[in-house]
Amino acid sequence: MIFSGSVVYVNPENYSKAKEILKFSDNIDVFAVSEDKTQIIIAIEADGEEHLQKICADLRGFPEILEVAHHIFHFEDEVEEILAGNKVPSLDGFFKSKKREER
Predict the structure, then answer these.
(1) Which residues have CB under 8 Å from 79's CB, separation 6+?
(2) Which residue in 56, 58, 65, 93 is a FRET match for 25, CA 20 to 30 A apart?
(3) Tens-place pLDDT, residues 25-58
(4) Span 66-101, pLDDT tens digits
(5) Which long-range contacts (CB under 8 A, 24 or more apart) does 14-22 make?
(6) Cβ atoms within 10 A of the Cβ of 22, count?
């Protein structure tokens, strides 16, 4: 499991619609909203790295959502698997140059 504390960036005029989009996912909990309604603080619970990437890609597919930025992670059993040599972490998407290419 991976738990991520993230910020969803939206235009204020799209805030209500974006918040509704976030409520449809069982993997997302909304915790706070900035006063200007441009940032929505969420927690994401994903089965693994690939699942987290899919959730974020799906969110970015909505025109009301400008970006999803992760600010804190808790990897739980992912770290144990890596330390035991059972898994090699992927660094895809963690480099600024890669993120620019995707845009």
Answers:
(1) none
(2) 93
(3) 899 999 999 999 999 999 999 988 889 999 999 9
(4) 999 998 877 767 667 777 888 776 666 666 554 555
(5) 14/63, 14/64, 14/65, 15/40, 17/64, 18/62, 18/64, 18/65, 21/59, 21/62, 21/64, 21/65, 22/59
(6) 21
